[in-house]
UniProtKB/TrEMBL annotation:
Keywords: Lyase. The gene is splB. Its EC number is 4.1.99.14. GO terms for cellular component: endospore-forming forespore. This is Spore photoproduct lyase.
Amino acid sequence: MKLFMPDRVYIDPKSLEYDTGIMIKEKLETLNIPIIQTKKVEIEGKSPSENYAKAKKTIYLTVNREKKLRKCKPSADYQFALSSSCPGHCEYCYLQTTQGEKPFMKVFANVDEILKVVQEHIDENLPNITTFECGSITDPVALEHLTGSLKKCIEFFSNSENGRLRIITKFNNVDSFLDIKHNDHTKFRFSINTKYIIGKFEHSTSSFEERIEAATKIAKAGYPIGFIIAPIMIYENWKEDYRELLTSLKSQLVDYNKEITFELIQHRFTATAKELILTRFPNTELDLNEEKRQLKWGPYGKFKYVYPKEQSTEIKEYISVLIQDNFINSKIEYFT
Ligand code: SF4
């Protein structure tokens, strides 16, 4: 897909105390992207949906002072962030409820300081291996062409005895990662779904084919790889479509002999998320009917609506069998 370009970038003066900040600013200047130096981002749309659309085209270059990393179960021990929000417009995105009315993207310039905090967490857990997720509040690949920060991170983990990185993305601009000596310390996971779900709900992200092509490139570069199939939805042809998804993956990855992990997440929503989704995407065709769902208590102190037990068991069993039939080298890490 065409690489994302913001309409405007706000720059926190503090970010220019770092080489990465200066480098990103210079890059933006060569791309003729309007830059505003300020401590405050101002987005004034006429409606919530205009605020949302404008925010998704706005970047704020700033710094991340987080010292104590949050846990990130079940996918890793901890999470850290090189950026927040992303240029995608996935209608169901769980970040809808956590990033406010104006989910502009933050890009953090102090990459070395962020990695220092990561190192402290690795040291605290010695002699064990500590795993880190860098895609919990962002898509870490989506802005790489403007920042180069993820490449730096992969190189850091490549040299780390006890740290391991886990990346998750819906974007296909992976070429800058292909020649890194990664040492098998970074696992690339692609968030994948049926063509129907990607086309209908995951606007401004890479297509089904582009993601599979990117996964194939990353596999050929020897990285450990995995797939997150999420959100899994039940709709008219869901079984045929998920079958097609798994057979397409298999046909592209026949030569990949290392383990391939799968994480399976059924579609869920909270009452707050539903309200926001309906404001931003009034014509959404997402199934947000509470009566067809059951309530489940979530780790963030909110109830969420998931499929009833019978349907979630059907999803789990059906997709698990598809994976096992197509990949003898597969490992299903969890279904939730
Ligand atoms: S790509 Fe990921 S982070 Fe971005 S909108 Fe879609 S689900 Fe949310």
